[in-house]
Amino acid sequence: MSDASSSRAPIRVAVLVTLFRTPQAGGHVKVWERFAEAAATTPDIDLTVFFLGETEGVEACGPNARFHRLVPRWGTNRFAFLDSGAGHTDLASFHPRLAALLPAFDLMVSTDHFAFGRTAERVQAAGGPPLVHSQHTDVETLTRAYAPAIVGRMLGERLGGWVVRTLDLGERLAEAEAKRLRRHLAVCRHVFLSRADDEAKVQAWFPALPYSFLGRGVDLERFSPRHRDRAWLESRFRVPPGQPVLLFAGRADASKRLLIAAQAVARLLAQGHDLTLIVAGAGRDLPEAQRLCGPRLIAPGVLDQRDLARLFASADLFVFPSESETVGNVVLEARAAGLAAVLSGRHNGLGHLVVSPGEDGFVVTGDGPLPWANAIAEALTHDLRAVGAKARTHMEATSRPWPQVFEEDLARPWRTLARTRPDA
Fold it and tell me: Residue 286 and residue 300: Cα distance in Å, rounded?
């Protein structure tokens, strides 16, 4: 940043996340917590990240960054049948309080096309600051995963299942979400993408829409093999000494395909394998996973970053069948901690993060519990510490710290995209 730019008033950026910020929140929320922390090293950016909250309030996150909670108008938390596990949002098409605040900013960054994003569309149309979009969630895939269960809770499993199958409701609703995203992007000045699939989609929809890629940072000090403490793991989680420990971390539901992991582990247990599965997370599929694996599944709930980093470094194998990821922060962190991972090589899986299958991780190209059980059994025959060490080496060579990602992928484009104020 030049001396001239440092003498100007900071660029005021509003990031819009129509989700509640809670300890149980997923990667979409966590990413913006990390970026807000990183903004402290960029004094010419004044960052406000808007989240949903039970009450309105502002929480400072450094001298030039803060979290601003706004009360939802039609929060999904009011309706028990809409509790999907992916985090509650606001179903309103307009948020008056947010609309009153946004004109004071120089740039609006939507991260979804729900209440906050729709409000920003109207603010921009009324002469407000420019609107850009940052793509963080595969809404289509999540809709396919969650919609059938929501309909089942509304109508009952039997009638709801019939409606979903007859109307192909999961696919129809996923297509509706794709259309809504397309309408939102049509009014955005720029889009920040996380994966190549989204690039192809945006280019097909809007060939002239400028775009760039937004990476993810990794804290190589926090997530490091040096935190390995097997005695702590065995004591904390009551694992017999020397027993292989598999780890799943994330939402314990259909979006992350926990039951594929649990069914695979149940097969291995039935075949006589001696192992434990730790599920670090919470969600609707956890009781069924516990039923499948019995006492060999340990569920400590959602862990804080310190304990999760320690667990990554101390477990033997990370098992993550999810096929709804845009980046997969949790896998990057596991690999940084030196934990070998078994990942899906199918569409929207994270198998592409493995550079050399069998050497720095494992990739499952089939679907269902049997291919996953076979892949886990094969992985357990390897020197997993050596596999994890190669994953760590790759992360050291390719990852960037959060402040660097913030400066290179966000702050630099924001400086160009933000409107110029008369007092600048």
Answer: 11
CATH number of the domain at 3-217+401-417, please?
3.40.50.2000
CA distance readout (Å), 109 to 47, 67, 215: 11, 14, 16
CA distance 20 to 59: 14
Q: Which pLDDT score is estimated for 169?
A: 63
Delimiting residues of CATH 3.40.50.2000 domain(s) in the chain = 3-217+401-417, 225-398
Q: CATH number of the domain at 225-398, out of 3.90.550.10, 3.40.50.2000, 3.30.200.20, 3.30.470.20?
A: 3.40.50.2000
For each successive 10 residues of the chain (424 residues), what is the average pLDDT? 60 96 83 93 95 96 95 74 63 95 98 95 98 85 65 63 66 79 95 89 93 96 98 97 96 91 98 98 94 98 95 98 88 98 94 96 97 98 98 97 97 93 50
Query: Do residues 355 and 330 touch, judged by C-beta distance below 8 A?
Result: no
